Amino acid sequence: MSTVPRLVIFACSRSAGEAFASLKAMGQSLPSDVAWVNLPCGGNVDVLHILRAFEAGARQVWVLTCYEGACESLDGNRWAEKRVQEVQGLLQEIGIAPECVAFRPISPTMAADLLAWLEER
Amino acid sequence: MIVAERKPMAEILSFIQGVNRLLVVGCDTCVAVCLAGGAKEVAVLSAALRLALRERTPALEIIERSVERQCEEEFNAPLAEDIAKVEAVLSMACGVGVQTLAEQFPNALIYPALNTKFMGRPETTGIWAERCLGCGDCVLGRFGGICPITRCSKSLLNGPCGGSSNGRCEVDPEHLECAWQLIYDRLSRLGQLERLYAIEPPKDWRPAHDGGPRRVTREDLRP
Fold first, then answer.
1. What pLDDT does B220 receive?
2. Does residue A2 have a pLDDT over 90?
3. Whole-model pTM?
4. Average pLDDT for residues B15-37, to the nearest whole number?
5. Nearest Cα to A102, choosing from A16, A4, A13?
6. Residues 4-33 of B with CB under 8 A from A
7. What domains lie within chain B, and their CATH numbers?
8. Would residue A2 count as lying in a domain?
9. Of A44, A109, A113, A25, whose CA–CA distance to A70 is shortest?
10. B48 touches A at CB < 8 Å
11. What is the pLDDT of residue A4?
């Protein structure tokens, strides 16, 4: 079992968190190299959270939030996307592929998609 | 406030080539308010530097600090112990703070992590704009509180010029209002349009930086 997660997922509890809960209810669990961090809203994610994940050894970071217009905090997903873009710019400046951090909207009903993403990565 | 922006990472990294122990010091006054060099930005820059140099041996050791006002020696004094432990210091203060550290710790290598931009204010969230050039002879009282020196692209004292169109400045119509339109509107609101009949004489730039580096002396405060 991996001790350092290779993928860290910062997840809005209202969308990605619900999708993950559905996966668990279906008997699925996360791969051992994935760390899941539930956030009250995707807008809580910060540049420093993402950088710290990379510093801790993660190879990839995903930020999963509600779709545009579906955020219960109105625009938490937009703020999350901006934070991701900020980190992507910073990574590019220091010679790390910006694709290492990804922003993905998801809805609570997308458990199957979440599973597919985890398998495809 | 003094408004600043982080330098490109490539430039910052060029400063610390070969440095194994680094102190990154922020300033919790102006540059913290404009989100360029406070404690949070020290943490972000330090994390980015560690990531950038993650494959280097030995690993880069960074001490992260932030002081209340880097432009005053009293606040920097507690840094002496940290500075003694490192090979270089990266200051996230404005140019005044960087120079204060350099004067205060003459044997330390001090590098700037920010580009100091201007004296200005936040117009709205995420946008800061220049408001004062520090010309040393404030004219705001004659222009309804709007500075033609700073806000007119040509620093015209007898404006507007022909580049004013629909209240915008020809230099950057998307982002710049015509200072002279603003002055006219403001004086009109204040019932002081007659002020604009006065011809302003050429400005004496000696009180500005053109007269050399300036200083203010208050004998009543000196020992």
1. 97
2. no
3. 0.94
4. 97
5. A16
6. 8-10, 13
7. 2-118 (3.40.50), 133-210 (no CATH)
8. no
9. A109
10. yes
11. 82
Position A108 in a domain: yes
Question: Is A102 inside a domain boundary?
Answer: yes
Beta carbons of B47 and A51 less than 8 Å apart: yes
ipTM score of the complex? 0.93
Decide if B116 contacts B134 (C-beta within 8 A): no
CA distance B9 to chain A (A): 6
pLDDT on residue A14? 96
Q: Is the pLDDT at B174 greater than 70, yes or no?
A: yes
Pull the structure tokens for residue B33: 């308010």
Q: Give me the CATH number covering residue A11.
A: 3.40.50
State which residues form the domain around A25: 7-120
Number of folded domains that form chain A? 1
Structure-model confidence comparison of residues B171 and A1, the more confident one: B171
Q: Which residues of A touch B (CB under 8 A)?
A: 47-48, 51-52, 54-55, 90-91, 93-96
H-run or E-run covering B50: helix B39-52
